[in-house]
Here is the input.
Amino acid sequence: MANTETSLKEAASIEGAIGAALVDYTSGMALGTIGGGKELDLNVAAAANTDVVRAKVRAMELLGLNEDIEDILITLSTQYHLIRLLKSRGANGLFLYLALDKGRANLAMARHQLKKIENELDV
Here is the structure.
């Protein structure tokens, strides 16, 4: 099992990664971040993407969908933003956020690697 720091380092090593965060979507607080910088303030991204997660959860409730959200993908002109809701024991209310450079990333591999990181993460 990996801790938050190890998991974020592994996320940052994904090809094309710009930054990553572990976020509590009940509070909007980043529990840990790596990368980012001038082009991406991960604490702002954590808070803003919390609103995205809450909106999607609410939409699913209103639609009566009894499904689990695996991930949410936001595609920008030069970036991918992946939000992976964690389902592991003790991780309820948390998500992994990963920003990728669209020109350098392999989206399918990034999703696969983020799922692997989730499975190894011990919060």
Remarks:
- The mean pLDDT is 93.
- The CA atoms of residues 25 and 50 lie 5 Å apart.
- The first strand starts at residue 17 and ends at 24.
